[in-house]
Structures are given as C-alpha cells and as structure tokens.
Design brief:
Blueprint: E1 2-7, E2 21-26, E3 29-33, H1 39-45, E4 53-57, H2 63-66, H3 69-78, E5 85-89, H4 92-105, E6 117-121, E7 125-129, E8 133-139, E9 151-157, E10 163-166, H5 181-185, E11 189-194, H6 199-202, E12 212-218, H7 221-232, E13 238-240, E14 247-249
Helix pairs in contact: 3-4
The structure holds zinc ion (2 copies).
The site of one zinc ion (ZN) has 6 residues, from helix 2.
Length: 250
C-alpha cells in the first residue's frame, strides 16, 4: 500500500500549503481520502490516470477537505466518460449540492451520470469494499453543534492486511474522545490531524499504538514541524510530518 500526501496543510491556506487530500494506492487502484486541494490536477502531476480512481471518501464537508472535489467530479462526469467511481459523502445534502453544481455548469439538457458516479451517503461501519480494500467509517465529533456527521476511516488492504487509519477532523481539544481506539491499535499507520488540539492532548490517546503516526493538517507546518516531531519522539510509535506530495509505503 502506497500513501501519498497530496495536500497536508491546515484549515487556513498559507503560501506553500495545500488543503488536505491523501491518495492511497493498492497496485494500480487509487483511493482518495478527502479532496481539499486540486485533486484533478494533483493526480495528473503524479502521472496517475483518472480511470484508476475507484473511490473518493470524504470525512466531512468543510471546504478545506472538499474544495477540489467539484472540479474533479465535474470533469469525470462530462469529459472522462471511461471512468467510474464511488463518492462517499458525509451527508445527503452535500451530494445534492454537488449534483446541483454539476448541473449548473452544464449546458441545458446535460445530466449527472449517476451510473458511472456512484454517490453513497456515509454511515458508521463498512462503507466500501472491492477486490483490493475494505473501508470502515467511524463517527467523530468534529462539529461543535454535535449533530453534523463527521468520520474517521480505516482502509485495510486485502492482499497484505495492512491498515491505515485516517482521523478526519476531530473534536476540539479531543474533548469528544473520538479517536476510534480499537481501529488505532490494529493500524500500521495513523494519519492524524493536528489542528484542533495540541500534541499534549493527543499523546494520551496513542497509548499502546505501535505503528507510524503521520501528522498532517498542521497549522503553520514549517514553523512547528520540529517541535511536533520532538513532542512525539521517544514513544512506542514512529512519527512523521509529511510534506505535500511525500509518499510512504507500508
Ligand atoms: Zn480541516
Ligand atoms: Zn473540519
């Protein structure tokens, strides 16, 4: 399994940062987790073909996780008619808004090709499976109002059994205790945001984790990277703070 951090920036853009999106590859098959940066562009820059994208998983609908979704899906809809993929959305409203955006950008008489674009409303539990991966969603408490859905997600590669857990965005200060602990303990890699809490608030939740912690979605990344790595060193797990377009293989 290959993991590419297409965008690893925080919630507010800065010069040189890119909104959050991650590409997971199992052989030729591509799975995208969030689409904050310009994923249509990023895929081509990485010499990937759109037809190999099997699914795009959205953890929650905030713009820093979704800004690049519409241009990509719109392109697949009207131009790349040999492509089909699943889009897992945290809400029905987001799917309808995306379809409305596509319709508004098409000539009259155009349509959203829902046979090639399979829109799936997220729910807790197994949300996707193909010959390469299993994908499970877990509820998080990112939204302050408490009732807008947001998710962490676990991707398991069938061939190797390797597992990568994505935190999505979590509760402020981790006050919601919303890291799925069982999934974390069986994961080889934990891609964790570090925008809504600090290292000292995350550390107690990592007890027993023996994989690699990949910190992304980091505020002023270049300024804080060394401090962050220092804060997490000397524990049972490895730690990385990937740059945009960094790749790790497990
Ligand atoms: Zn975010
Ligand atoms: Zn968010």
């Amino acid at each position: 399994m290959k993991i590419t951090f297409l965008g690893s920036g925080g919630c507010i853009e800065q010069a040189g940062s890119k909104y959050v999106a991650t590409m997971v590859e199992c052989g030729d098959a591509i799975y995208l987790v969030d689409g904050g940066c310009a994923i249509a562009d990023e895929l081509l820059r990485a010499n990937k073909e759109y037809k190999n994208v099997r699914a795009l998983f959205i953890t929650h609908y905030h713009g820093d996780h979704t800004a690049g979704v519409f241009p990509f899906i719109d392109l697949i809809n009207w131009a790349y008619t040999d492509c089909s993929l699943s889009l897992v959305s945290p809400t029905e409203e987001y799917i309808e808004a995306l379809k409305d955006m596509i319709m508004a950008s098409l000539s009259y008489g155009g349509k959203v090709d829902s046979e090639r674009l399979k829109f799936i409303v997220a729910k807790v539990g197994r949300i996707f499976e193909d010959e390469n991966v299993l994908v499970d969603y877990f509820p998080t408490k990112h939204f302050k109002n408490g009732d807008t859905p947001s998710y962490a997600m676990l991707i398991t590669e069938k061939a190797t059994g390797k597992k990568v857990l994505f935190s999505g965005d979590l509760s402020y200060g981790l006050s919601g205790n919303d890291i799925p602990k069982d999934a974390l303990l069986e994961s080889d890699v934990f891609v964790c945001e570090l925008y809504h809490f600090i290292a000292g608030e995350l550390l107690p939740h990592l007890e027993g984790f023996n994989g690699i912690l990949c910190i992304n979605h980091l505020f002023e990344r270049d300024k804080f990277k060394k401090d962050i790595l220092d804060a997490f060193s000397g524990h049972s797990f490895g730690v990385l703070a990937p740059n945009n377009n960094d790749i790790i293989e497990i």
